[in-house]
Amino acid sequence: MTQMKNIFKTLIVVAALTMVFNACNKQDYSMGDLTAPSNIVITTEVLGVDATHPYGDGSGDVKITVTADNALEYKMDFDANTALELKSLPKLPSTNTAFLTKKFTNVGVNTYRITAVVYGKGGVSSSQSASVTVRSDFTVDPAIVTKLTADASKTWVVDQKAPGHFGVGPIAHSDPNNLKDWTSPVWWAAAPDEKLVVAPCFYTTTFTFTKVSAKSYSLTVVCPDGAFTKTGDLAGGLPGIPSSGPEACYSYTGGTSDFAFVPASSGIGSPLSTQTSIALSGNNTYIGYGALQKEYEIFNLTNNYMYLRVQGTETGNAWYLKLKPGSN
Asked: CA separation (Å) from 204 to 83, 154, 156?
């Protein structure tokens, strides 16, 4: 009994000492200064402006500079007419200045409403908007049209036997000169036939590109086994896809939409890219994978091979697709 009492006393003493120790080491925490960024200024410089070219040289390039007080991070949405998409702007070290040269790709003279969102300590943010009017001239290389459409109609399918026929990497990189990390599926690349069991529709869906006229093109997607996609908001707007569920094949028969050739917005140069993109209209078509945006940059295109890069519907992801000719 005496031994039990001693053990009990010892436990009480240990508990008391622990409470005293914790009390002596208690620290006060505070959020600190949560001052929101202020004095946001957006400056735009349309490249190539002169007396005869008031909206630029046709490249669509605009140098954008943003300054603000109490700023730690800068992001920008480049077009108020499309879904909100905030992209990070590089910040000059030890300054309150961020900058980027943006290529606007809508052909002709267009006005864009751009918005800078600037973040300060604790994640508090402020925003400012501005408008910029710029001209984009673009004429697609006829060889690209011929290879893609055979100057009439040509069907393509995902090349399931090719290593890396599907892959993912970062859409942008902190060091744009690190081309490997920025222009290849460094996060994951599919092995041949990798999706054959879990998503057979990925390999049976066909994509037929048609040259309707000299400047008019269409894409027809036929999905005999459904569409390979994510669900909900990540499904790229495909109609009838469930609001939730895993990445899989979902019931969808396909559709037809117009598409246009536009200058690629990534700024990736030759020879890694043709600097030309396929821009799909509407939400009922896609290429390869449903959970993607609608601008597919053509990295490489021959009569028998197509390699595409496209931003995913998940922020920060670039997806890569390899296709080959199928049966019309």
From this structure: 31, 16, 10
pLDDT tens digit sequence for 38-59: 999 999 999 999 999 999 999 8
What is the residue type of 212?
A: V
CA nearest 326: which of 102, 160, 183?
Answer: 160
Q: How many residues appear in the chain?
A: 328
Homologous superfamily of the 38-136 domain (CATH)? Immunoglobulins (2.60.40.10)
Name the amino acid, one letter, at 239.
P
According to CATH, where is 2.60.40.10 located in the chain? 38-136
- Asked if residue 110 lies in contact with residue 79, where contact means CB atoms within 8 angstroms, the answer is no
Contact 63, 99 (CB under 8 A): yes
| pLDDT classification of 176: cutoffs 50, 70, 90 | low
Query: What's the burial of 158, exposed, middle or buried (CB within 10 Å: 0-12/13-18/19+)?
Result: buried
Cα–Cα dist 211/7, whole Å = 89
Task: List all residues 6 or more positions away from 197 whose beta carbon is below 8 Å from its beta carbon.
Answer: none
d(CA 33, CA 47): 39
